[in-house]
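FAQ
Q: What does a multi-component entry look like?
A: The components come first, one per line:
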Amino acid sequence: MNVGIVGATGYTGLELVKMLVKHPRFQLAYIANSEGDTTINELHPSLSGVCEDKVEKADVDAIAKHCELVFLALPHKTAMAYVKPLIAKGVKVVDLSADYRLPLDIYEEFYCPHTDVENLSHVVYGLPELFRQELKSAKLVANPGCFPTSAILGLLPFMSKRVADTPIIIDAKTGVSGAGKKLSEVTHFVNVNDNLFAYNPLMHRHAPEIANKLGVDFEMVNFVPHLVPVTRGMLSSIYITVEGDFDAEALLREHYKNDAHVRVSSKPVDMKNVAGTNFCDIYVQKKGNLLFIASAIDNLMRGASSQAVVNANLMMGLDETMGIPDIAYVP
Amino acid sequence: MNVGIVGATGYTGLELVKMLVKHPRFQLAYIANSEGDTTINELHPSLSGVCEDKVEKADVDAIAKHCELVFLALPHKTAMAYVKPLIAKGVKVVDLSADYRLPLDIYEEFYCPHTDVENLSHVVYGLPELFRQELKSAKLVANPGCFPTSAILGLLPFMSKRVADTPIIIDAKTGVSGAGKKLSEVTHFVNVNDNLFAYNPLMHRHAPEIANKLGVDFEMVNFVPHLVPVTRGMLSSIYITVEGDFDAEALLREHYKNDAHVRVSSKPVDMKNVAGTNFCDIYVQKKGNLLFIASAIDNLMRGASSQAVVNANLMMGLDETMGIPDIAYVP
Amino acid sequence: MNVGIVGATGYTGLELVKMLVKHPRFQLAYIANSEGDTTINELHPSLSGVCEDKVEKADVDAIAKHCELVFLALPHKTAMAYVKPLIAKGVKVVDLSADYRLPLDIYEEFYCPHTDVENLSHVVYGLPELFRQELKSAKLVANPGCFPTSAILGLLPFMSKRVADTPIIIDAKTGVSGAGKKLSEVTHFVNVNDNLFAYNPLMHRHAPEIANKLGVDFEMVNFVPHLVPVTRGMLSSIYITVEGDFDAEALLREHYKNDAHVRVSSKPVDMKNVAGTNFCDIYVQKKGNLLFIASAIDNLMRGASSQAVVNANLMMGLDETMGIPDIAYVP
Amino acid sequence: MNVGIVGATGYTGLELVKMLVKHPRFQLAYIANSEGDTTINELHPSLSGVCEDKVEKADVDAIAKHCELVFLALPHKTAMAYVKPLIAKGVKVVDLSADYRLPLDIYEEFYCPHTDVENLSHVVYGLPELFRQELKSAKLVANPGCFPTSAILGLLPFMSKRVADTPIIIDAKTGVSGAGKKLSEVTHFVNVNDNLFAYNPLMHRHAPEIANKLGVDFEMVNFVPHLVPVTRGMLSSIYITVEGDFDAEALLREHYKNDAHVRVSSKPVDMKNVAGTNFCDIYVQKKGNLLFIASAIDNLMRGASSQAVVNANLMMGLDETMGIPDIAYVP
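Then the predicted structure of the entire assembly, as tokens:
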């Protein structure tokens, strides 16, 4: 099965290449970025001797000619211009941007006017633990954001125990690769090393995505991301008020007993044990009516690229674990 | 004024030496650790050419002979054996351990039987923003823990606005120096670098200290510390439910308008801007009824040694800012 | 083909497991450490859900019963006690310790008396670029040290150009995982983070291994390792005096044109592009008669475990690249 | 004595402010950058509550009006446009750029045409260990580069022992702050963290400065800088061939016995013990005819700003140690 990548320059593009060159069934038949005229190992020297394919200037006709399915690793607001003609030409799409993750009104409030309302009607949100069946017949998948993935997977098993109208608090910590390759104050080594700070507290645009998928009022979701001096990794520390007497860890294990890419841990989870993999590791601790949930993922993998390949597997009728890395970057 | 340090081997002992050799009024007349027979620059090579004083084997009579005031930078449970005879001999004591921070019953529940109940009756908790007047006449000061310092300073201005019986959530992040010089799994570079995790979630023994000093029920304090790949620094991200309509930043500024060592920031605070200083930098953001407070300190300075010297300044009738570092380790 | 690992607790043991559970032809049939009675995911939690095999207490008869070939990831001086009986029982051995890397006299000078002189006579030094043919029929392979691997691969192409009796200078930088899991001052996060220093300058015991394999006088090899705040990675910066007019990069490319695991770079090499792989990336620059060679490897992979699996591939008649990671931990 | 800083935005400007606000005799009377219209704590938030002075748009007349001496922390090639009129107006200048460090011909080969040849004739190179007497009467001081400072101080005591026409090898490691605040690929956290690489090997323009001040042929100086994942710090590992039988450490101690800011160490030196100070820590090891010298400084302090204040002290008739930090950023 021929697949392609548009947006090969960034970190998520690199992760897609790393998986697809080793995938048992997908053939990486087309790679593009906005300029073209280069090779993938020129963009990412670590691929020298491994994959030295040409990188084209992105073109819808070329994609449709070469690929049954394409991964779009493009900036928010620019992906939708590709999705519309690609779906029209019958190419399946996994879109890693935010463009199809939200209902129209919420998207337009937090991003910009949407230019492809039609495809919004049938898009499937690419979190297999929520929409596995729908993904199997999807033509367009909106790959979740990294923060929502870690937060939603941590919260899902406990939403029925939550006391209504109590705040959901998500104190998230992310590695710097989440900010992308772009140069900026917050990615300058000197500003990040030996440092740690919150940014956009209570105002980050991933909050509406979390609220929408959990089906709770946006006002209840209190989301504060922190930047930490780590290259890759994400840990969401989540606090909710619950009612009733129950064994939180048992409930967590039961909820995910059939999910290959969620691991429940009896000890607090960390970033390194999931680095380089699609695993989401989750830990829970209960004290009175308060639940502390720690949910760890690799922001570039489960938070983006490996989840995208899982979605592609499902869309193409393959086993969802096929070609998905499970060996962590440890030590 | 002659002062001494008992416990010069560790990081807080080093920080005390660094301040006291430059202090305008205190004379560092005595330095000891548990073995003696060395010099301070042998223990801490960075002091070579700066301070090369002898380090004695700790001895109560020698302390009393040389010092008006002594700093005890000793492990929990061992400090009280020094405090009792020192107070009896008329030496003022700033104790950096946990031994006198808590009421008897709480201390014995979380630590061990207390062997100096008498002095517990008159000890002053060394947080100047809470007990400045009492500190001026104190003979024995219990220097606060690092986590309680950052949490309490962040919470104090807003306790009157808090809705009763709602959880106080403190998601704290600390640098590795907080774990001390002792070798352990969690201080091994490979386990910490590019990693991040919670430890003792909801069960850390700093929680009762926070609850006790704020005057709230221990059950309401939900404290989760995280270890981060940073040498020094502490950030407490605090979430509480409040009522009423008020300007949170204005309230914060008003509360600390007379405190030289608290800085209110309109932007999220970070670890580096306070590293090496006694400042506590605080930021607040309100969203509906939820308050997010970020409180940053240097865990070894405001969280231990520089706060101890501030307390000594007050006890000896000096200006509390005398000899206290205010120039941060930036960049 | 059934293979085993003795010494599964450490970092090199973990790397072996990570490769062998994915190897197309090797079956990981036996895992042991010095205590046994555990599982591999208990020792290395990142393997949970991936490999949860039992870990036995190491036993020569059990190894011989289950394995055609065994990897020994044991401390120097203790490996030889296993090698002798294993070879006698017909088990092939890849020894990752230093025990068989050196001629008897040099080994005994730098380590201890050798208790298996017999097998020293036929051991093959496991650097495929030097001894590929011999490795194909080897029964016992001494896997090279990490520093010698990076230094020798950098120097080999240029030894014929070197001016006799001029110093060979190897300024090496290694990540902290090279010091192993053992707790020590130099692996304490606070001592390594934001720091860098040489250790055992001109006196490290890897120097005789380098001299011996290059066939030069030990006195000519000046080797200074530095510890750097990096988890995995090794860069050797090498300086030699050469004669004659030649294109150094062309010579380097020609030398390694048939070696799949050496990449020649026209830009200075770095640690990250080889992290997690068996590649050795080499760069050379000539200025007058001085040659600067930079040689980068992953200290745990090409410097230990992946090179061991390459050697096992050769010993068992397989393609040397089979099951060897080539996708780097980037970013 | 009134002094000023032009170029307050960068890291070296910040370090100058940090020292000058605490200096016993210098009054910081003027601060400027290229835009002005801001405050120093707006540029450097860590200074809030410590120094909140106005920052002016740099102007020669204003400098001359307010200052007896000025520090120029400006980019190479732009500083000389300020020096010429300032010297003409009788203002003493410590120039932290490269503009006056080299003889005319060498400067113009490596930088650009020089527009102030007149002042080149009387400039003093600001390395007190070489030119202390000349500095006392200097009107214009060229503050040395960071790499040359560490390399020259390491080499000076041994130049008389060096075998003529043998290569001087300087393998230098620098923290990222040396690259300045400017955003670039090599300062992006993701590219530096867990990584290490050489840059401009054998071709860096600090090499001619080293050769010129040591009085050796430029061809003999082989200088290779490496970028390391550290914020501040510089270690030069130096290798030279010597003749004669001598005690290298004794020679080193003798050479610097009267220099307050050089510390000789019997153990390999590191970056942290000098961080935040003006110390240069030096270690030497001899093996046959080869000398290994390790020389550590803080690149922003001894490599720039604190050396500049030492020079100013000398120019103004003060003790050279006055107001110079000697307490390291440890841990």
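Q: Is there any commentary attached?
A: Sometimes. For this entry: The domain at 2-143+304-315 of chain C is CATH 3.40.50.720 (Rossmann fold).
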